[in-house]
Every structure is written in structure tokens, then in C-alpha cells.
Specification:
This protein is 76% helix and 0% strand. By secondary structure, it is mainly alpha-helical.
Length: 208
């Protein structure tokens, strides 16, 4: 409807009044309490205001209306991962999103990370073998390094994995920046931290 199109425009454009967006979303839900787009619009609106509890309520309503929606499952995944800190529910929702779109890089990386968060190393290894080719070098290095670290019970494996990735892709700014961070947090090697931060900065001064 034109009301919903206007509300969506309002949510994305800071020059328009937020109250007007709420007005039209309210109108849409009064006409149809199961209006999927209105619930998603409300969820996005509250999330933008950092009111994650109200956002979650509307994502939950949206999921009841459309239980097969990849988009809504991903929203629930982010909520449980970043705000509710419920790793099991986070895993459930990213798994559901992955089932609906198994070639989405975001779904593959999110599922791999969440499997490892839940100490499901064998499942992550299996998925990485199957879908790891979809990931960019930075994501591949993280997953491979994390799997190796958990298997070897040695987090310096993350550093070794990033070092190997850089040998294959020496101009990758993100790999250098992350390796610098790993050197600063895992073994506290200031010289190597600065070395890789400098390489990243010299290659792209806007990265930091």
C-alpha cells in the first residue's frame, strides 16, 4: 500500500519525521494485525532506535506469520547472537536461514561461526569442507584458524593460519589488519603488531 511505502521511505530517510512512520505502520497493523511488512518495518524502526526488545517482539510476530522467511530467521539470529546472548537459539535461526539459502556467503559464514561458538567443531569442519570455497580469504582464514585452534587447543593456530593466508594474498589489507590484532591479543608481540598494522595502513589509509 502507499501507506507502507511511505513508512518504509520514512524509516530510511532521516529528513522525514519518525512519528509519521509510526503513524503509517500503526495504520497498517490496525487494518491487518498480520501484516508482515508492517511488523518488519516496526522491527527495523525499533532496532534503529536501539530498542532491541521491541524490535524482537515484531520479528517474532513476523516469524509467526512467515516461518520460512530467510530474512526473519537471520534477524532473529543476529538478535540472539548480539543482544540476548543465547548461542543455541542463535544457532537454530542461522541454521534455518542456511537451509533456505545454502549458497549465501552470509549464511555460510554465520553458521560456521555459530557452530564453533557452540563447540560443534566436527560439524563446522564438515560444512567448511563443503562450502568454504564461497568465503573470501579473510573469512576462510578465520574459520580454518579457529577450527585448528580448537582441535589443537592452541590459539596461536589462528596466527599461523593468517600468516599462511597472507603468503597467498600479500596485498590483502584485511588479512594484515586482523593479523596485527591477533599478534596484539594472543601473544602480545608489539613489533609484529605494528608491522602488520603499518602494511594495512600503507595499502589503504582509509581502512582504520
Amino acid at each position: 500500500s502507499s501507506a507502507l511505502r511511505y513508512s518504509q521511505l520514512n524509516l530510511m530517510n532521516n529528513d522525514l519525521q519518525k512519528k509519521e512512520a509510526i503513524k503509517y505502520l500503526d495504520k497498517a497493523l490496525k487494518l491487518d494485525k498480520d501484516n508482515l511488512i508492517a511488523h518488519i518495518g516496526y522491527a527495523d524502526f525499533y532496532f534503529a532506535l536501539n530498542n532491541t526488545n521491541l524490535a524482537f517482539k515484531h520479528w517474532e510476530e513476523a516469524l509467526n506469520i512467515s516461518p520460512n522467511s530467510e530474512l526473519i530467521h537471520k534477524s532473529m539470529y543476529f538478535y540472539y547472537r548480539d543482544f540476548a546472548t543465547d548461542l543455541e537459539k542463535s544457532l537454530y535461526h542461522i541454521s534455518e536461514a542456511y537451509k533456505r539459502n545454502p549458497t549465501s556467503v552470509g549464511n555460510v559464514f554465520g553458521l560456521l561461526m555459530t557452530l564453533l561458538d557452540n563447540d560443534k567443531v566436527d560439524e563446522a569442519q564438515e560444512l567448511f569442507s563443503k562450502r568454504g570455497n564461497l568465503l573470501v580469504p579473510y573469512e576462510k582464514a578465520w574459520i580454518e584458524g579457529w577450527i585448528n585452534s580448537l582441535q589443537e587447543k592452541d590459539f596461536t593456530e589462528l596466527i599461523r593460519t593468517f600468516e599462511n593466508a597472507i603468503k597467498s594474498d600479500p596485498d590483502n589489507v584485511k588479512l594484515h589488519a586482523e593479523l596485527g590484532t591477533l599478534y596484539s591479543t594472543i601473544i602480545i608481540d608489539t613489533l609484529k603488531t605494528l608491522k602488520h598494522f603499518k602494511i594495512a595502513f600503507d595499502k589503504d589509509i582509509t581502512y582504520f
